[in-house]
Structure formats: C-alpha cells, structure tokens
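Researcher: Structure prediction, please.
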Amino acid sequence: MSETDKDLVFSEGVKAGKRIYYFDVKQSRNGDRYIAITESKKINEGTPENPRFVFQKHKLFLYKEDYEKFVDALNRMLDVAKGVVSVEEAQQAKAQREAAYAREEVAEEPQSPGVAEGEEKSEKKSFLDKVKDIF
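Model: Predicted structure follows.
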C-alpha cells in the first residue's frame, strides 16, 4: 500500500463529460481529516492522426476550519446559478457579510503599540481580496 493510499479514508468520483471530479477524505499525520477535490480532464496533446491523451489535474484542499464557510458559499452560488436568488440580492447579502467580517476583524485586532491613536493602520486584506489581486 502506497503512502497516499494509507491517508485516504473515503473517495467518490463524479463523471461529467470529459471531466471526472474526485472527492477524497484524507487523514493527515496528526489525525486531522481534510477533503481533497480533484478535477481530472482528459485532453489530447497529440494530433488527430496520432492522438496522445493525458489527464490534466487540478487539486483543491479543504481543511476542517473552512468546511462551513465553503459549504455556505457553495450553497449561495448554487442558489444564484439556479435562479433561486437574484444576482442583486446575492450582491447585497455579500456586501453585508463583508461589512460584518470587517467589523469583526477590527473588534478582534489589538491596537499595535507602534501605532499612535488617530494614526491610520495599513489595511488588512482578506484571503479573497488577495486572490482577486492575483487574477
């Protein structure tokens, strides 16, 4: 049994055209479980006369501290995609959530000794804002 087989707890695949999505529950060395989502796409890197198929894979790792946030966001996206919630309603709710997150961060953030009262602190970016900057 390979090292990767030992950490696999449960797996399920979903076939979707030329893609297969694998949902794997794995266990780390310290016993924590996490989810690995893999998209595997069959692509032809050869020619029509001489096809050479390879599988392009993209992985996403989801850790236990993020399960609830991930599922909530996915459910919201599904509601918009299915038309259950309008884009405008989703945008308004998103703005309200972001404002609430910002208030929570400010409330939790201790005043740094190097910043005098009344001075502006550098703005902290959320994970999503950092990802947006990359793309």
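Model: The chain has one domain: 7-109.
Researcher: Thanks, that helps.
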